Amino acid sequence: MSTLDFTIKPSVNPHKFTVEIDATRLERLAANFGMFNPDFIRSLDRSEQDVRAGRVKKLRSLKDLRK
């Protein structure tokens, strides 16, 4: 795996930060994670259908999953 250079900039809000990365390196990272895999693409299509059908629940925290 090749090296990956990116920049992390702090924000005014202590819970947020900005990450900057070159577009070609982002594509390489996505390929390494398997995001161009046909199964992954199909899962994205299914998730978009779920959003359109209203089968998605917004969470404010991961603790909400236990309820």
Description:
By secondary structure, this protein is α+β, with helices and mostly antiparallel strands. The chain has a domain at 23-56. Helix content is 39%, strand content 15%. The protein has two helices and two strands. The chain has helices at residues 23-32, 38-53; strands at 6-10, 17-21. Strands 1-2 form a two-stranded antiparallel sheet. It is flat, with a radius of gyration of 17 Å. The termini are far apart. The model has no long low-confidence stretch (mean pLDDT 87).
Topology:
Blueprint: E1 6-10, E2 17-21, H1 23-32, H2 38-53
Antiparallel strand pairs: 1-2
Could you report the average pLDDT, rounded to the nearest whole number?
87
Class computed from helices, strands and strand pairing: alpha+beta
Q: Total number of β-strand segments? A: 2
Task: Summarize the helix and strand pattern as letters.
Answer: EEHH
Low-confidence stretches: none
Shape call: flat
As laid out across the biggest beta sheet, the strand order is 1-2
What is the radius of gyration?
A: 17 Å
Tally of helical runs: 2
Compact summary:
By secondary structure, the chain is α+β, with helices and mostly antiparallel strands. It has helices spanning 23-32, 38-53, and strands spanning 6-10, 17-21.
